[in-house]
Specification:
The protein is of the alpha+beta class. The chain has helices at 8-19, 22-38, 40-43, 63-71, 73-84, and strands spanning 47-52, 55-59, 91-94. Strand 1 and strand 2 (55-59) form a beta hairpin.
């Protein structure tokens, strides 16, 4: 029986899925792309620090920034998920 060679990306993706780590990998990607998605102005003041169960924690310097970003939270979530290609981020908590 002849087996066809698979590319490493396919094998890795299947392995991560089988181990239940694929979701966690996509979540960690949300932290990495946050600054790119929100742009330079916001990225200078807001830093994504972690994500757990779809809730992204973002550190901001003041309550004024927290309030300002809360107004645009839905758009940020939508843009993050579009960049990730899946509904990974369900909420953002600004601290």
């Amino acid at each position: 029986m002849v087996r066809r060679a698979e590319n490493i990306k396919t094998i890795l993706s299947r392995t991560l899925t089988n181990l239940g780590l694929d979701k966690r990998m996509r979540e960690s990607e949300a932290v990495k792309v946050f600054a790119e998605v929100v742009g330079d102005k916001i990225a200078q003041k807001a830093q994504a620090v972690s994500i757990n169960a779809g809730v992204l924690q973002v550190r901001v310097p003041s309550s004024a920034w927290r309030q300002e970003l809360n107004f645009g939270k839905a758009e940020i979530i939508e843009r993050l998920n579009a960049a990730l290609g899946a509904a990974v981020v369900t909420d953002i908590y600004f601290t």
